[in-house]
Amino acid sequence: MKRFKFILTFLLSVTMLTSCNNEETRTYSISQNVHYDFTEMDNFFKKYVTEGKVNYSKVKEDNALDKIVIDLKDFEPYAIDDNWERLAFWINVYNIYTIKLVTDYYPIGSILEIEGISGMNPFEINFIEMKAGRKFSLDEIEKKIIIPKYNEPRIHYALVCAAESCPVIIPEAYTMEKLNEQLDRQAGIFINDKEKNFLYKMEDEVFLSMIYKWYRKDFVKKILPL
């Protein structure tokens, strides 16, 4: 129990994002200090997300993601100079495209059903288009960009995988100005969700979400050597 309390204390008090200086090597020049306007994303989340759930049928009916997708195809994420802003960008992109993927195959009950329909792991499909024709998968954004390049375990409370076991999605875009507070809030909501984490007092046992097993190194590396 002491170790569990210590880990939870860490999760809620994790330090500010550290610098990320090792972006992948690029052979083309990029104008720095560009800002992405999150207004369209923010309006989308506010309109189509209610109580942590996405109204997929309405998103599909309205073609609500078309403008956002078009804008992202012509945007260079590495032109964003601020690490917080770039992290907010990647979180929003991950969530937007998770919703898009589910919407494309809707009606389905979970993103995991897509593999049975398409024959492809939904998290490995290269369908996220950025400037210069580059394409990313959800796994690439999470495991090759966000996790290794940003020292921030709270992102696991923000990235939404469109399944019941995932963190709830918030009805707003993540932004540089509010990111620290938003991640703290998401951490608190997830940790205190008794359907995902709870104490079984009769046996003095703690049951935790599988997130803490899948991403154990991200959560404990700062306080417990592996």
What's the short version?
The chain is mainly alpha-helical.
Which terms would index this structure?
single chain, mainly alpha, two-stranded antiparallel sheet, 10 helices, 6 strands, globular
Low-confidence stretches: 1-29
Order of helices and strands: HHEEHHHHEEHHEEHH
Cα-atom radius of gyration: 18 Å
**Spatial order of the strands forming the largest sheet:** 1-2
Query: How helical, in percent, are the residues?
Result: 40-55%
- Approximately what portion of the residues adopt beta-strand conformation? 5-15%
Verbal overview:
The relative contact order is 0.16. Strand 1 (49-50) and strand 2 (53-54) form a beta hairpin. The protein is mainly alpha-helical and 226 residues long. The strands form three sheets. A two-stranded antiparallel ribbon has the order 1-2. A two-stranded antiparallel sheet has the order 3-4. Strands 5-6 form a two-stranded antiparallel ribbon. It is built from ten helices and six strands; from the N terminus they run H-H-E-E-H-H-H-H-E-E-H-H-E-E-H-H. 44% of the residues lie in helices and 6% in strands.
